[in-house]
Amino acid sequence: MKAMKALRRRERVVVAVGLVLVLAAGAWMLLLEPALSRQREMAELIPAREATLESRRALVARRERLGGELEALDREIDEASTNFLPGPTAPLAASALQRILKDLASGAAVDVRSERVLTPQDLSGVLEIPMEVMVAGSIRQIVTLLARLERASSTIAVKDVKIRLEAPGQPRELLATLVIAGYLRPGTSAPPASPRRPSGEET
Q: What is the Cα–Cα distance from 24 to 145, expressed in whole angstroms?
């Protein structure tokens, strides 16, 4: 009887230990293992999240730098536009460019044979107003016209120059085909600046 009771106690101990082990294994599988898995996943995500955060910081810094550059560019355009053609439309600007050209050509004593306004070009918010002009005169007169165009108080660019003899046997008379361009900031309507005579120029 004593042996049977001792055996039963041992069995109960074994059963109790087994139950504890089962419960511990269950707790591990249900609670600890998922928590450890989430911790491992979070540890793996940390470098990626740090990289994302760093890229966002760089983007914010770049946005601020680009904003400053854009403001500086706007200021430069505002300063340069004081010498632009009057508007507010491209046809009005082209008419102003024709008047300026005639004044400059008159001062250089060249004969304007033809004028042709070309298609305006949009240069990111600034309109380029090109015009093709044919003038006749001596070498000195044409060079004087080019100098006056370069020094004009209005912003005028000489885009192309082609020079040829007006007629065989007359080397002193030349025909020059110029492509010039003025600039317009849409919406502006300031009066055009009068052409400035280059210093020391002879007409």
A: 100
Q: Classify 124 as helix, strand or coil.
A: coil
Residue 87 contacts residue 93 (beta carbons within 8 Å) = yes
Whole-structure pTM value: 0.55
Distance of CA 95 to the CA centre of its chain: 30
Residue pLDDT, tens place only, 90-142: 999 999 999 999 999 999 999 999 999 999 999 887 889 999 999 999 999 99
Residue 138 · residue 172 · CB < 8 Å:
yes
Residue 199 per-residue DSSP state: T
Torsion of CA 193, 123, 157, 188, to 10 degrees: -10
Mind listing the pLDDT tens digit for each residue in 135-175?
Answer: 999 999 999 999 999 888 778 899 999 998 877 766 678 99
Q: How far apart are CA 187 and CA 128, in angstroms?
A: 14
Angle of helix 90-108 versus helix 139-151 axis, rounded to 10? 130
Residue carrying the six token digits 């003025």? 182
